[in-house]
């Protein structure tokens, strides 16, 4: 059956949404992953097939349950659709209706019956000090629980900064020896979804990719999905033009802060933090609901070595040279009022003229300029 002829009636009944809404959702997820419309149709058909729902074992280590709390507030899809229609959430220490030995036995049974097929989600850091006694569930340490669950998992996802690189638990002096899942499971591929809490869309998009293709999406050297963590927050921030023009808020509540100027001088870690916060915002409510959008500097929560490590109001390490060359260096701009809008415009025009002149010169040198052009 062709993709456009696929029968979505069962999906409409199961999810309680129209075919149009369902396909629009899948298209949006595919687009955010950088995939084609054909991939969107493949994703829609995969989600529509209940047999493709992967069993999920969800572990909790040292954490505040913030990632799960964020997922509870997801609307695209909602949590009930995620755990009942997209995945089969067989074990989750916070959401399980049962308790005690019964739940632990179910977990072991699911893992045994679905070897090489289940998705393991780790939420929270894993403490290694003193043989792991700082985190125990059902009489077992998080160390042993994670090692056992990871052995036969089809894929492993570290959800949240604590699971990705240790989070606040791993900050100095780190008395419990907390580490993230990738550091503990060093011989396995672990996809990390950092954030404190992470954006639910980054997790859902990654899971939908897994449901569709049976594998996890392309990741960077830190295990992060490239589609979600491929660019610095600074690159897509809507306060970025103020940074380039040297317009900074000097303190909370001053004129620059009220006008929406760049928060770099207030300690914004956007220039050294990789995440898609500016484009997705948070909790599906729009209106600039994310730290910078509401007037607070980025904390760098999703970046190991930044969040929970660097002082809140210290200046960020600017990873890219962003302003044009004739703009003052960051260090020089820290003590002045910055460029005026007019000066920035003139500087931008100068850059354009310089680029144009260089292009013309190169064209002539290559002998490609024709008579009469």
Automatic annotation (TrEMBL):
Enzyme Commission number: 1.12.99.6
GO biological process: anaerobic respiration
Domain Cytochrome-c3 hydrogenase C-terminal residues, every copy: 229-309
Domain of life: Bacteria
Protein residues bound to [4Fe-4S] cluster 1: 64, 162, 196
Cofactor: [3Fe-4S] cluster; [4Fe-4S] cluster
Gene3D superfamilies: Cytochrome-c3 hydrogenase, C-terminal domain, NADH:ubiquinone oxidoreductase-like, 20kDa subunit
Gene Ontology CC: [Ni-Fe] hydrogenase complex; cell envelope; ferredoxin hydrogenase complex; membrane
Residues that, per the record, bind [3Fe-4S] cluster: 277, 298, 301
Location of this chain's protein in the cell: Cell envelope
Molecular function via GO: 3 iron, 4 sulfur cluster binding; 4 iron, 4 sulfur cluster binding; electron transfer activity; ferredoxin hydrogenase activity; hydrogenase (acceptor) activity; metal ion binding
Reactions that this protein is recorded to catalyse: H2 + A = AH2
Main subcellular localisation: other
Similarity section: Belongs to the [NiFe]/[NiFeSe] hydrogenase small subunit family.
Protein name: hydrogenase (acceptor)
Organism the protein comes from: Candidatus Thiodiazotropha endolucinida
Gene: hybO
């Amino acid at each position: 059956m062709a993709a456009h002829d696929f029968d979505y009636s069962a999906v409409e009944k199961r999810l309680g949404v129209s075919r149009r809404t369902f396909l629009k959702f899948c298209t949006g997820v595919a687009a955010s992953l950088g995939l084609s419309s054909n991939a969107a149709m493949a994703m829609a058909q995969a989600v529509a097939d209940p047999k493709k729902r992967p069993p999920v074992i969800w572990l909790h280590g040292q954490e505040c349950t913030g990632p799960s709390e964020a997922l509870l507030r997801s609307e695209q899809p909602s949590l009930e659709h995620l755990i009942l229609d997209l995945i089969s959430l067989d074990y989750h220490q916070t959401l399980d209706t049962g308790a005690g030995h019964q739940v632990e036995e179910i977990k072991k049974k699911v893992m045994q019956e679905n070897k090489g097929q289940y998705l393991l989600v780790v939420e929270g850091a894993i403490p290694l000090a003193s043989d792991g006694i700082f985190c125990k569930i059902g009489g077992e340490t998080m160390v042993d629980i994670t090692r056992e669950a990871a052995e036969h998992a089809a894929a492993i996802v570290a959800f949240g900064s604590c699971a990705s690189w240790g989070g606040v638990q791993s900050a100095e002096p780190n008395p419990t020896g907390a580490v993230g899942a990738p550091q503990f499971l060093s011989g396995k591929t672990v996809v990390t979804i950092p954030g404190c809490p992470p954006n639910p869309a980054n997790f859902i998009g990654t899971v939908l990719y897994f449901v569709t293709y049976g594998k996890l999406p392309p990741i960077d050297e830190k295990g992060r999905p490239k589609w979600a963590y491929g660019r610095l927050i600074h690159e897509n921030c809507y306060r970025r033009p103020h940074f380039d023009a040297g317009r900074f808020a000097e303190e909370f509540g001053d004129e620059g802060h009220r006008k929406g100027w760049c928060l770099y001088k207030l300690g914004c870690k956007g220039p050294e933090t990789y995440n898609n916060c500016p484009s997705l915002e948070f909790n599906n409510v729009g209106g600039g609901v994310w730290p910078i959008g509401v007037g607070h500097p980025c904390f760098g929560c999703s970046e190991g070595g930044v969040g929970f490590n660097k002082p809140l109001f210290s200046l960020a390490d600017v990873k890219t040279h962003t302003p044009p060359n004739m703009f003052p260096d960051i260090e020089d701009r820290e003590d002045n009022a910055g460029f005026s809008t007019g000066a920035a415009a003139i500087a931008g025009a100068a850059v354009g003229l310089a680029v144009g002149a260089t292009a013309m010169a190169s064209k002539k040198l290559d002998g490609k300029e024709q008579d009469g052009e």
